[in-house]
Amino acid sequence: SIILGIESSCDDTSAAIIKDNKILSNIAANQQIHNEYGGVVPELASRAHQQNIIPVVEKAFSKANIQQNEICAIGFTRGPGLLGSLLVGTSFAKSLAMSLDVPLIEVNHLQAHILAHFIEDANPTPPTFPFLCLTVSGGHTMIVLVKDYFDMEIIGKTIDDAAGEAFDKIGKIFDLDYPAGPIVDRLAKDGNPDAFKFNKPKMEAYDYSFSGIKTSVLYFIQKEVRKDPDFIKENLNDLCASVQKSIIEILMDKLEKASVELNVKDVAIAGGVSANSGLRKAMEYNRKKLGWNIFIPKFEYTTDNAAMIAMVAKLKYERGEFTDIRTTATAKYDL
Ligand code: ATP
Ligand code: FE
After folding, report:
1. Could you say which residues bind Fe cation here (predicted)?
2. Which one of 137, 189, 259, 287 has the minimum C-beta count within 10 Å?
3. What does pTM read for this prediction?
């Protein structure tokens, strides 16, 4: 089977072609326009998707060397995400499906981040059910017990900010561009992770909270800048390394607890923050220390991409799960 996947839930317009489990192309147009605003501006995102969608889809076909009439279905992100952004991908997928007379397959963006692990070149061997997946992105932070492809249980989640949001908001305090996550990661490499200590939250079971660390960084910086206006510049690497260490420790503590208590040793990470080098190192450390089988996505499958959408569409295609052409996008969409 050859399937086209379309992703437009936030600020990346992406299209991918999957043949069996193999990704033939995975094209993305990232929207630089939001950088100067320090966050994604929904109106601008929607407009940029409209400009990007046709060239991105055309490029996905040409890179894959596939003709439009060769595809047997179209998968698209129905939600969750920004409604105006989702609408562009959804409408485009619907009209292309109609004109090519192929079935439409809706995809849950969060499921897709997790099921990206089943893309052929994502892992040497895919995880086995049940496995744990720490899903960490700009909008979500949760530990998911994945019992089967479409049988997932959220066993813990953040009660406030997502981990990616924490990286981005704390990066903003340090005057870094949006999204700050990758910049913090890069700067942390030349810093001392033990230079500064930030309090960790005490949360029930497998839940998370990241607003506390954001506030304590803010107050700490305000206090230090009053004494030395150049404090951030002089300590930027150490600040980034220390913040990154704290966020990763918070994430890993609960993941380890879940692995031990549920006795699940196949442990995956997914979502934009799974690109973080410190988190990847922590996973590798636990592979040795706790005997985990770890699953870390390739960079191109971490942040928003259509390859993961195409992958889920392919799984649903095999099950004969198609979506009515009258479907609409949905900003909220449970796992
Ligand atoms: P969701 O998937 O929850 O709808 P989203 O699509 O906005 O949210 P992703 O694209 O999956 O999120 O991830 C983007 C987030 O990942 C941003 O917050 C970004 O800062 C963060 N991020 C990306 N790379 C890194 C990195 N190397 N270290 C830390 N954070 C990172
Ligand atoms: Fe995402």
Report:
1. 109, 113, 304
2. 189
3. 0.95
